[in-house]
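Before a colleague's protein record goes any further, I have to sign it off. What it holds is a sequence and that sequence's fold in token form. My question to you is simply how this chain folds and whether the tokens agree. Thanks in advance; the entry in question is below:
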Amino acid sequence: MEIPVKAKFRLTTLRRTVQFFLEHKFVAALSVFCLSFAVRLAMLVYLGNIERRGTGEVDSVALALLSKHQFADPYFVATGPTAHTTPFYPMVVAGVYALFGHGSMGHLVRSLLVIGAYSLLYSSFIWLARNFGFSEGVGLIAGVSAALLPVKRSAEVFWGWEEPYAAMGLAVLLLLTLRHWRAPCRKARMALLLGVGWGAVFYISFSLAAVLAGVILMDFVMRPSWATVRDQALIVLAAVAVMSPWVIRNSVELHGLVLMRTAFGQNLWCSNNDRARPSVELINTDPIARGMYPYNSSQEALKVRQMGEAAYDRYDLQRALQWTRQNPRKFAHLSLLRFLYFWGGPFGHRFEHIVTTLYTLTGLLGLFFMKRYVGILQWQLWIATLVSFPTIYYFVQYVNRYRTPIDWMIWMSAGQALIVITRRVWPESVIAERTTSEPMILAA
């Protein structure tokens, strides 16, 4: 059956457009950035009320930094020094408010910074795909899709925290890890550099510690040797050394051993109790459940002030563990729902749920193609990260922005699946024809 003239013209135009973007990667990345920024800016203008859309505890800590010059007071009332968040993002927000004030202009700039960070992340997919060794076109597909589909909704406009920065930091560290693994002779200097990088990124998001554990375990299982043990020891020691100033500060200010942040016990208790629901959004519909958070309740915040933040967090941890032992079936049910929310998006938002489920399933399919079309080492990094990072989030309340640090990996593997399918269905496609098997910048 002959293809109509109009269809041929459209296919030719599409082919030339794709060809142009594949040959001019900077233009492609800039276009993805502009597309992402425009979509989210339109959301910001449409939703409005910027002054009322703060970033919760981060805003409170940022204001304490400006007014008291202290990293403190994240809750409903002043509670003193805190480690509720890692230091990076509250300092960024404090810098914005110092320059533009805490009024409408300051909130606007903060929102534009959130939009810009997500847009920069999506535009980097083209560079990341090339350097991780994916087929050309994967970064273009992943970047355009993520830019065009704001599945995190308001988290990509004004509710965002440090997640896009954590995603970019993780991507760089995994690229360095890939280079380290590929080296014919591993060097201790690179292991130390990786450790410093991990320690630095923990100031952005301590949740990435799970990824470091997963990568270390994968490396040891796949390449057991004394050199591997030496490398992992150097990485951990260097990371601890970089973390130590903040750990010491926390131990002094909070009167107890605290690593990069507290709040684990608090989140575990607020997520596992008789009134718990699988997501923060659902918890907030119940005034009693919502009031269990010190950020929402003066009564709970006063407990933090009286007990001290570290002691309060340990108290909540014990309550959560006790409830879990007494209610194993309900805990298992909540954990299953949180698992489904994490990988499929919230059931109550049809657009987010459908799109997230589709690209997640496509991304999981893409994992089967990565060994052949990308590389065994890249596949190992993907498996280690996608298994380790989400583990903690199966036990605490779901928030859609939590998946952002690893979402770029799912978009990438989904793009690879689409490339393989395109190659089989449409062999003459430009995207299917142009492939690369070696990281361009990180090649030895």
